[in-house]
Design goal:
The chain is mainly β. The chain is built from 4 helices and 12 strands. It has a single domain, classed as Nucleic acid-binding proteins (OB fold (Dihydrolipoamide Acetyltransferase, E2P)), CATH 2.40.50.140. The longest helix has 8 residues.
Amino acid sequence: MNYVTEKNNKVFIMGSIVSDAAFSHEVYGEGFYEFFVSVPRLSGQTDVLPVTISERLIAAGSLQQGSVICALGQFRSYNKLENGKSRLMLTVFVRELLAEAPSRNPNSIVLSGYICKPPVYRTTPFNREIADLLVAVNRAYNKSDYIPCIAWGRNARFVRGLNVGDKIALSGRIQSREYQKRLSETEVKTMTAYEVSVSKLAAFDSAEEFDLDAEFELYTAAPGTKKEDAAHF
């Protein structure tokens, strides 16, 4: 596998399993299962994240509700047909299970890819600056993952100046966020969105300008060592 493709999407999560594993799909005779993991934030809140894992990584009894999972992988997207409409789905795809739960930041991600939609910049009623961006991250076999991200403050101002096609690298954490979707005049449904909350980002022309491996080591280090990191959790 191409080295650049392999390292441009790295995730580390550690948390408690909060749902039973359900069969998802099969590829070339290999079964994959989905479940949800509750991952703590430094603030005391939690993110409940969807996780996909191969049957080859599942040991007997290792995916019981309440047990802790410690995993390395990628944040991936796929399209799912719901009510005749295509919906972008996101999941943490596990590449490796770690035998021990190290004392690390329990939720970290490093990505590099391309801006694929015009970023949306806005301010909240409390004058907090926010920017939404969608990043296309290349994967092996000519596939791409489309990852929604959200930036804050000076990062949001930086994102406002980016254009479709610009290449960026970023690091942060994966978060879950509930929102209300109006289905009709009388019916409202609570939905959950998943996105990357950006702690650091940069635009660059080549991989050599942003050391993704070093960034990943930084954001899987012990939390609370950097003031600017803690502000985003």
